[in-house]
Amino acid sequence: MSKARHAFSWFTATVAAAFILLVAGVVVFNRFFGRPPEGPPINVIIEPGMSLPAIAELLEREGLVVSAEGFMATAKTEGLAAKVRAGEFAVPRGVRPEKVLAILVSGPFVHRKLTVPEGYSVRQIAALFLESGIDTAPVLESLLTSPEFSRSLGIPAGKLEGYLFPDTYLYTRGTGAKTIMTRMVRRFFQVYDERFRARQKNAG
């Protein structure tokens, strides 16, 4: 075999080997770091104290990443393994693991709505809280019957009845009834003050 033919055979074999390695690399990359099929966003709940492997397995199970191992590798490589937050997130399908990771680390939480109709009593409002999964019955009962809590909100009578303003309130998963009731009372005083000023202005 001539030197030229030997060199050509060597070159051909090298190119073929490089091509095989390239294809294999692409296959491996897509197996661990590729995009899953596109689809509507899925609400994912990350519980407090959830480990990175558990989070990665949840994401793979929901079809949001193609590989739990690939997601964990991405999180560790970017130094964000310990920065995934607990909460509820709307995660789109069909994106790479780094995008999913960015949502869990710094993206917005899912906001839920609580609509309190006008005329509802505190007991009916408490029932709405329970139906929405906001706190437990003992916690709600404690808040409703606590004069100290009511007075801390500026209610001289020490009772919440008539002060929980009917409206639609946005909240995130894990928000307690105390926080939402505080917002409702503050909204009551805000609206009351606005109406009082308007009557004074009209009377003057």
How would you describe what is shown here?
- The structure is a single chain.
- The model is unreliable at 15-32 (pLDDT under 50).
- This protein has helices spanning 3-33, 52-61, 68-77, 97-106, 122-131, 137-144, 147-152, 177-203, and strands spanning 42-46, 87-91, 111-115, 168-172.
- It starts with a helix and ends with a helix.
- The strands form two sheets. A two-stranded antiparallel ribbon has the order 1-2. It has a two-stranded antiparallel ribbon with strand order 3-4.
- The chain contains eight helices and four strands.
- It is mainly alpha-helical and 204 residues long.
- The chain is elongated and about 65 Å long.
- The protein folds into two domains: 42-106, Dna Ligase, domain 1; 111-203, no CATH class.
Strand content: 5-15%
Structural class computed from helices and strand pairing: mainly alpha
How helical, in percent, are the residues? 40-55%
Radius of gyration over C-alpha positions, nearest whole angstrom: 29 Å
- The largest beta-sheet arranges its strands as 1-2
By DSSP, the count of extended strands is 4
Helical segment count: 8
Instruction: Name the overall outline.
Output: elongated
Distance between the termini: 111 Å
Largest sheet: 2 strands, antiparallel
